[in-house]
Structure formats: C-alpha cells, structure tokens
Specification:
alpha+beta; Homing Intron 3 (I-Ppo) Encoded Endonuclease, Chain A; 2 domains; 3-stranded antiparallel beta sheet; two-stranded antiparallel sheet
C-alpha cells in the first residue's frame, strides 16, 4: 500500500492561484462551496486548515471568515477570525441575506384554502364543530384548523 502524502503537500496540490494578492481557489472536494480534506481524524474545512497552517490555532467556538466572500478561497490574507455573530453581521453587511417579502394567505404558493374558506372555518368552529369535522370538510388536517381558529396563521383575515 502506498504511503499517503503529508497533509501540507496534499493541501498545496489542491490550490489554484495566480498571484499572492488574489484568491487561492480550492480545487479539491467541496461541499456548499467550501473546500474540505481529510486530516487523519476526519474532515477539516480547507480554509480552516489554511488559517491554522499559516496563522496558528483557532480558539474554541471561533469561525474563520472570508473577506473576499469566496467560500472556496483558502488565501490566509483573505481570512479572519470571528464569532458566529461576527459572521452573521458580516454576511448581512455584505447583503448575503436578501429577505423576500413574506407571502400571506392566497399569495403563498402553498395555500390550500382561500379567504372565504377561512371565514367559513372560523364560523363553523364558533358554532361548536370539532376540529376534525371541519378538517374533513376542507380536506386538511385538524392541526391546520387549530392554527386558523387560534389565529396563528391567516392572521390578516378578520
């Protein structure tokens, strides 16, 4: 059986770089854009290995973040340490999280009922019908009927 190459040799053989000022792109295995490799104990993220190799140990609970916003970049000059909160703040500041307006009721692509059904469901419940009876009438679950009647969903319908 052939002896495995040292981890540093394997690391540098999986990097594509053009100059020291640009991203070093990980061309090895990736998951969700982030490079990873085996280190003898399991998998390690390539950018975390790069930080440890070039800069030293990473404190417990600390993340290695990207200044360049390229998940496959392992250039230590593009990396910095931060908490989970720092990571979320950095992503928000860079516009990574683009919130779409929430679609309520009939505007939701998943709706099974319309506004008239909601009004009818609430009337039936006020008359004392059980959740399961109403659910059977509309072809939905009794849990959904409960959420509608307790006004946890479809809150915009009076």
């Amino acid at each position: 059986m052939a002896k495995r190459k040292p981890i540093t040799e394997r690391f540098f053989s999986r990097i594509k770089r053009t100059s020291f000022s640009s991203c070093w792109i990980w061309i090895g295995c990736r998951t969700g854009g982030y490079g990873h490799m085996r280190n003898g104990h399991g998998l390690i993220l390539a950018h975390r290995f790069s930080w440890e190799f070039h800069r030293g140990a990473i404190p417990e609970g600390i993340h290695v973040l990207h200044r360049c916003d390229v998940p496959s970049c392992v250039n230590p000059d593009h990396l910095f340490l931060g908490s989970h909160a720092d990571n979320m703040r950095d992503a928000a500041d860079k516009g990574v999280f683009k919130r779409r307006p929430r679609r309520l009721g009939e505007k939701s692509s998943n709706h099974k009922l319309d506004e008239a059904d909601i009004v009818e469901i609430r009337k039936l419940r006020k008359r004392g019908l059980y959740y399961y009876t109403i659910a059977a009438k509309f072809g939905v679950t009794k849990g959904l009927i409960h959420l509608i009647c307790s006004r946890k969903i479809w809150t915009h319908i009076p």
